[in-house]
Amino acid sequence: MDKIIVSLAPIGNITGEIDVDGLIEEIINCKKLGASMVHLHVVDRFGRPTDKLEVFDSIAKRVKEMEDIIIEGSTGGLSDLGAKERSVCLEHPLIEASSLNMGSVNMGDSVYINKLPDIRWWAELIGKRKLSYQLEIFDLSMVYTAERLIQEGLISENAIFNLCLGFDSALPANQDVLLTIVSSIPKKRRWGFIHHNFSDFRLIATAIALGATIIRVGREDCKDLEKSNIELVEKVIRLIREIGRNIATVEESRSILGLKV
């Protein structure tokens, strides 16, 4: 597919308290540049995972008051929160998409736990809300778990397989790994790419050229602490166009994701 969705993951590398006003301004400017989706975690004012929606709600409401953008809630993030606490964003009326991790994986010295019963429970909640399934794939086995749950009818066939590379102690971000996982995804499925802790755009460029449906960038994933969300979105949009693909508008993105336009 020629159209590509640019997703922004803006909250990362927090030192001190989150500048909510500044963050909202960045999200708005990134949308104007061409980002059509924003990926938000439920965090407190200091960027720590929480089950309280105050910060999430404030950002989502104020952004939507100014611009039409798809808000993706996250059911993930390395924390001590339980499955129910991690899914509070699914209660928020403004989200249209949700991340859904497809299994457990080592992250640094910890284990990012996503048990299959919890995955099924989250999947049902996402389905009841008719949200876009953003499947987080950290390992090759998770491709097969995702396809199994689609075949069972638990996850929509419009789901996006988001390949997550570069996380500490998980799969490395290199071309061989990317090509291996892309070749393992069933041809009828669409996929996105998340390069965590990236310092350059080479592998992102490879994913764009290979046909990714979604490319995610932002301070959550960037290694360079000096880069702003606006700089990262400007760069990826320029790269997409140089490679010869087109940026999906918000309306086109909703159509691609099977959401109501």
Describe the structure.
The protein has helices spanning 20-33, 54-66, 83-86, 116-129, 140-151, 175-184, 202-210, 229-243, 250-257, and strands spanning 3-8, 37-40, 70-73, 95-101, 105-107, 110-112, 132-137, 160-165, 190-195, 214-217, 246-247. The protein has 261 residues and is an alpha/beta fold. It has a single domain, classed as Alpha-Beta Barrel (TIM Barrel). The strands form two sheets. An eight-stranded parallel beta barrel has the order 1-2-3-4-7-8-9-10, surrounded by seven helices. Helix 7 (202-210) links the parallel strand 9 and strand 10 (214-217). Helix 1 (20-33) crosses helix 2, helix 1 (20-33) runs parallel beside helix 8 (229-243) and helix 7 (202-210) packs across helix 8 (229-243). The radius of gyration is 17 Å and the shape is globular.
Give the arrangement of secondary structure elements.
Elements: E1 3-8, H1 20-33, E2 37-40, H2 54-66, E3 70-73, H3 83-86, E4 95-101, E5 105-107, E6 110-112, H4 116-129, E7 132-137, H5 140-151, E8 160-165, H6 175-184, E9 190-195, H7 202-210, E10 214-217, H8 229-243, E11 246-247, H9 250-257
Helix pairs in contact: 1-2, 1-8, 7-8
CATH architecture: Alpha-Beta Barrel
Judged by helices, strands and strand pairing, the structural class is: alpha/beta
pLDDT averaged residue by residue: 95
- Estimate percent helicity: 25-40%
Q: Span between N and C termini? A: 19 Å
- Relative strand content: 15-25%
Total DSSP helices: 9
What low-confidence regions span 5 or more consecutive residues with pLDDT below 50? none
